[in-house]
Amino acid sequence: MINFAVYKTDLGYIKISEQNGLIQSISFIDTTTDFGCKNGTIDYAYNQIEEYLLGKRKTFTFKYVLAGTTFQIKVWKQLKTIPYGETKTYKDVAVAIGCPKGCRAVGGAIHNNPIGIVVPCHRVIGRNGKLTGYAGGLELKEKLLKLERQNTLQ
């Protein structure tokens, strides 16, 4: 059985789902009236995300599962190598995974990232340095990048 809970943060509502002690998904959602059923696994993950949002955490230690195609998982694992406070382009990611002409495919995989923030798809930008596509919206992507930039200067 998949359990989930919704938490209100300064950046909006965040939904965290887990099954068998592994986080399945983390995503920002518009709003909800169903706040789910919190449990130890979900609370543990949320506490780390809250610390991240407060600028007190740069890495995560809770357990999660990446469920997707082989290509998607390859992209998501590559995203995990992008350092806190830094950005890469879709092209950089495509080259790093050995698929230099696969920028659009990389974008598609990033769009389907189930573990937002932890698998930092917000750190991927357009070749021209502009913010492009983010499931939570460009305003949220900009806020997450700003948060990280501010905390790398401290």
Q: What do you see in this structure?
A:
There is one protein chain. This protein is of the alpha+beta class. It is 36% helix and 18% strand. It folds into two domains: 3-53; 70-152, Arc Repressor Mutant, subunit A. The chain is built from five helices and five strands. The strands form two sheets. A three-stranded antiparallel β-sheet has the order 1-2-3, with helices on one face. A two-stranded parallel ribbon has the order 4-5. It starts with a strand and ends with a helix.
Task: Looking at this protein, list some descriptive labels.
154 residues, alpha+beta, two-stranded parallel ribbon
Distance N terminus to C terminus?
A: 42 Å
Question: Which architecture name of the largest domain does CATH use?
Answer: Orthogonal Bundle
Kindly report the name of the CATH homologous superfamily of the largest domain. Answer: Winged helix-like DNA-binding domain superfamily/Winged helix DNA-binding domain
Query: Which strand order does the major sheet show?
Result: 1-2-3
Question: What is the multimeric organization of the chains shown?
Answer: single chain
The whole-angstrom Rg is: 15 Å
Helix content: 25-40%
The computed structural class is: alpha+beta
CATH class of the largest domain: Mainly Alpha
| Proportion of strand residues | 15-25%
Q: What is the global morphology?
A: globular
Under CATH, the topology of the largest domain can be stated as: Arc Repressor Mutant, subunit A
- Pick out the low-confidence regions: none
The overall strand count is: 5
Number of domains: 2
The major beta sheet can be summarized as: 3 strands, antiparallel
SSE sequence, one letter per element = EEEHHEHHEH
- Helix count, per DSSP? 5
Question: Mean of residue pLDDT?
Answer: 91
